[in-house]
Inverse folding.
């Protein structure tokens, strides 16, 4: 296989949850640029359909779906629609996520539950629904978006969300366990753990986001002396989505400019 063929996604179909905004949009467009048709889904159909228009402008097919990852019925129906539209799903990017900040002592149980429901249960429900289909086809690439702050404790001055860190740690363990259970069926399960990216929930223009609060300080602590941006994400994504990663499963790839190495 040539180098180009290793990374080529022509003829493949991908689902990106939360693909209508932030990092999900960046990944949906990157998969389309690499040749894939892309299903973009989240609760807000209009943002997904806007990204589908961008995918079509790249010469690929897209499908926007309204889907709530916390609702099993919604997940099963959405995945069925995607399969009946495209015939097959080879790539699943579980990117939908949510964060609420509150001191651990006072975090409302509703916020804790919402983070676990979206970030962990949502990822599992999507893996379950699409994984069955991939196992039947004896091929699939699942990429779960965790976070570099899911590895260890975080100072409350940086991110004060024990529910978020806990949920992202769980996404890493879910990734490894499914990789071990499904590797024999040709289904690969890996995770990207982004550090601080200047998009989506860390958009510097939105008051209250981590980057709005402390972007320059965080950048000064990162070994490569900057925050993450769109191009920093897509190389790892295309590796995990393509034949290039056919001997890699159960891996958590950290994209944090070296911060975790300190
Ligand atoms: N930005 C960063 O620096 C950073 C760092 C590490 C990890 N991450 C992770 O990267 C992922 C994307 O985050 P982002 O920064 O791009 O933020 P974002 O723009 O807020 O993206 C979150 C996405 O999740 C979707 N979503 C939330 N709840 C959902 C639900 N119940 N069902 C379906 N979709 C749902 C949202 O769409 P709807 O509202 O339309 O449902 C939205 O598109 C998240 O998993 C986040 O934890 C981000």
């Amino acid at each position: 296989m040539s180098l180009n063929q290793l990374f080529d996604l022509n003829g493949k179909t991908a689902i990106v949850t939360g693909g209508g905004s932030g990092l999900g949009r960046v990944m949906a467009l990157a998969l389309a640029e690499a040749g894939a048709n892309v299903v973009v889904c989240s609760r807000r159909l209009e943002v997904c359909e806007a990204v589908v228009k961008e995918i079509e402008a790249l010469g690929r097919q897209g499908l926007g779906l309204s889907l709530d990852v916390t609702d099993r019925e919604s997940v099963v129906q959405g995945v069925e629609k995607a399969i009946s539209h495209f015939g097959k799903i080879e790539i699943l990017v579980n990117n939908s996520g949510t964060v609420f900040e509150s001191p651990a002592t006072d975090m409302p149980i509703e916020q804790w539950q919402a983070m676990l429901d979206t970030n962990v249960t949502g990822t599992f429900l999507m893996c379950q629904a699409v994984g069955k289909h991939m196992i039947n086809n004896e091929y699939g690439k699942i990429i779960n978006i965790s976070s570099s702050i899911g590895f260890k404790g975080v100072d409350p001055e940086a991110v004060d969300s024990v529910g978020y860190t806990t949920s992202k740690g769980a996404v890493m363990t879910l990734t490894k366990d499914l990789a071990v259970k499904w590797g024999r069926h040709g289904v690969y399960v890996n995770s990207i753990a982004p550090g601080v990216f200047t998009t989506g929930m860390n958009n510097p223009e939105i008051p209250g986001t981590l980057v709005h609060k402390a972007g320059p300080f965080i950048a000064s602590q990162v070994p490569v002396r900057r925050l993450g941006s769109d191009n920093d994400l897509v190389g790892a994504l295309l590796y995990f989505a393509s034949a290039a990663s056919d001997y890699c499963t159960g891996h958590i790839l950290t994209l944090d400019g070296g911060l975790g190495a300190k």
Q: What stands out?
A: The chain has a mean pLDDT of 96.
